[in-house]
Amino acid sequence: MKRPTAKLISGRQKFRKGNVYDVNCPSRAVLEHVTSRWGSLVLLVLLEGTQRFSELVRGIGGVSEKMLAQSLKALEADGLVARRVYPTVPPKVEYSLTKMGSEVAVHLRTLTDWVEDSISEVMRNRSRVEANKSAKPQPMQA
Amino acid sequence: MKRPTAKLISGRQKFRKGNVYDVNCPSRAVLEHVTSRWGSLVLLVLLEGTQRFSELVRGIGGVSEKMLAQSLKALEADGLVARRVYPTVPPKVEYSLTKMGSEVAVHLRTLTDWVEDSISEVMRNRSRVEANKSAKPQPMQA
DNA sequence: CGGTATCCAGCGCGATACTG
DNA sequence: CAGTATCGCGCTGGATACCG
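^ Those are the sequences you sent over. The predicted structure of the assembly is below.
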């Protein structure tokens, strides 16, 4: 289950249900799978081709096997990733994108490309902000 | 227009620095801001126009004020969101997308649109998977 | 190799209260 | 209205150990 525990803040939304702005909409859940920390990177790496589990671990800096397995399961359940097991003596499992998976992954790649292209401008912004912070030590008092 | 040069990732690991596969790359951090649970929704909502804080709270189902403020601060620091304060007696603060922010938001919207369009197919997959699960009860306990 | 199960530290995030 | 500060619970997710 997702979040039956949380007290919902949602009440009057001017946005219609059935889209990502609605907490309970399934689209929101899928969006979160796709944009999740590891889910997004998995899709991006698989865009380069079929990969084995250990290749994914090495390809994605910083993932633990646990989180990778977890992300793969979610994406597989969503029908975005295909899992193929070879019944060989040393187990071999390959992951690849499904048709649907390729579609999202392409959109994700576009987004990522934008980020990588814009990173210098973003970083320039960040330094400027931090400079202001230290330059203005809170003139809060009267 | 996006990537004139090859940021080619040809299957072999030894993940090159400078792209999102590198844990320490700044691009990764920005990507995470943009794709984060609330960050992404903030950008999407702001794509519809300038909004006040409380409007954002109401527009995004399930967000707490704390997380919203936090997300807005991160996005502002990245230079994706502009914050405008009106020195009126009842405080009034408006948030809007910067030029950069609009660019990401558009990519994000593309991704979201895909999800909303494909949600039925995804859900069909999920039910199929769950059906298989209950059909093959694993020996968890006795 | 490719998982899965368990433990547990950390912090994400919600609730509440206070400021301007 | 638009935050900020503080507290604390619970889930996230890393480390470890163990099966097929």
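The helical segments of chain B are 26-35, 37-46, 53-59, 65-77, 99-135. Chain B touches chain A through 61 residues (CB under 8 Å).

Shout if you want it in another format.
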